[in-house]
Protein: DUF3077 domain-containing protein
Organism: Pseudomonas veronii
Amino acid sequence: MTKALPDPPVDCLAVNEHLSFEDAQLYIAHLIHSASATVLDCGDHLPPHDRAKIHAVWHLLEMAKTVVDRSIDCMPRTS
């Protein structure tokens, strides 16, 4: 019998097991920044009602980036 639904895909994203907390936070900040820029670019081509939704998503991403940036600032510095 053939399955009605295929098996879900295996996780395509692999994270380096040796990635430090600090590097992970910096990478998250970069990903959020990139997502924010992409969202704003997409919003330029939408009607006003949909553009408002895009701006709401952008605002949420900026809030997340602010929290990540703060967590990076709070990390102890090693010399």
In short: The helical segments are 21-43, 48-74. The mean pLDDT is 84.
